[in-house]
Design a protein that fits this description.
Structural class: alpha/beta
Radius of gyration: 18 Å
Strand content: 15-25%
Distance between the termini: 36 Å
Shape: elongated
Strand order of the largest sheet: 4-7-6-5
Number of domains: 2
Helix content: 10-25%
Number of strands: 7
Number of helices: 4
Length: 189
Amino acid sequence: MSAKSPTLDQIWNWLEEVADPEIPMVSVVDLGIVRGLSWCEDQGKSKLLVTITPTYSGCPATAVIREDIVSALGEHGVANVQIETRLAPAWTTDWLSEKGRRCLRENGIAPPHPGQAISGRAGPQRPPYHASRSSCGVDSTEDAANDAIECPRCGSKTTRLVSQFGSTPCKAFYVCEMCREPFDYFKCH
């Protein structure tokens, strides 16, 4: 790494400002999409390697996320960037930060259920994100049957699944029987 290169902590902070294109109230860092950062040498020049894992392998926003990361880093003077997409281990809602969960809830999207940690699915390299991860405990097809989804607006657990797919494929569409408001639920992966 060159003496003029920013620290990895600075870069993590910059990437916290890169919004997810489908859920713009949450950053790609708080969603756990950015898995790691490292400096390497490329023909005598410092190159930043950014490892990402999309929320699912066919996510249509992956290309935009890559472009937004490169653009944001370029604005901070980091021009030599390589984005590596890693699909294994698969992204999991365990990688959502507490800030990310809070932002989802505050914006009318029910965050996934916390539960037991899933072994073998290491999250992003940067603390405290990895330290705050917890598992959903159920997969998306079992959510409605096993656990009540709490309404992000009124807090009621009297909710009903309307569709397995909400405004994006990674969310399901629910309605609250108490306040009658519809909402998305970020499915566990």
